[in-house]
Amino acid sequence: MNQHQLVITQYKPEYAEQTVDMWRNSKERAIGQKEIHSFENHIYFLNHILPEQHQIELALIDDKVVGMIAYNDKEISQLYIHNDYQGLGIGRTLLDRAKEQSSGSLTLFTFDINKNAQRFYDKNGFKIVARGHENEGNLPDIQYKWIQNNSF
């Protein structure tokens, strides 16, 4: 990232197409499955549904969307990093923001097939609390929980 500054900012609709493009590519690579929703529906979800209960923040480098997180004080709904920018600490930066603004614990779901995400959450203090298939892709998933000061 050298001289290119990472900027964390509130989501704005002018970043919708870049954000959804990054999100879909990252998710497809992570789970090996194409997105089941249309691009337009995905943008609608990002602009109208997700913000009802979640704060959405973007990670930008040179005004390019390289990551996004959607969270509230109890859960992380979405966390995606651009395929070309993974492993640089962007995910941890976004995760730390959610932890700082949490009620002291956070839950999230990740797909069982997504081993990179599991390593990431394990490394960042999350513990597995449940396994199941409660998602529209009908893929096995894992529920993680983080508790401040790790007092499980």
List keywords for this structure.
152 residues, alpha+beta, Aminopeptidase, four-stranded antiparallel sheet, globular
Characterization of this structure:
- The protein is an alpha+beta fold.
- 34% of the residues lie in helices and 30% in strands.
- The protein is built from four helices and seven strands, in the order E-H-H-E-E-E-H-E-H-E-E.
- Strands 1-2-3-4 form a four-stranded antiparallel β-sheet, with helices on both faces. A three-stranded antiparallel β-sheet has the order 5-7-6, with helices on one face.
- Helix 1 (16-31) packs across helix 2.
- The protein is globular.
- The mean pLDDT is 93.
Largest sheet: 4 strands, antiparallel
Overall 3D form: globular
Q: What is the radius of gyration computed over CA atoms, rounded to a whole number of angstroms?
A: 15 Å
Q: Which regions are unreliable across 5 or more consecutive residues at pLDDT < 50?
A: none
Portion of residues in beta strands equals: 25-35%
Task: Assign the structural class, choosing from mainly alpha, mainly beta, alpha/beta, alpha+beta, or little secondary structure.
Answer: alpha+beta
CATH superfamily: Gcn5-related N-acetyltransferase (GNAT)
Q: Tell me, rounded to a whole number, the average pLDDT.
A: 93
Strand/helix succession: EHHEEEHEHEE
Distance between the amino and carboxyl termini: 36 Å
In helices, the fraction of residues equals 25-40%
Count of distinct strands: 7
Arrangement of strands in the largest sheet = 1-2-3-4
Which assembly state applies to the chains in this document?
Answer: single chain
CATH class, anyone? Alpha Beta
The domain tally reads: 1
CATH architecture: 3-Layer(aba) Sandwich
How many helices in DSSP terms?
4
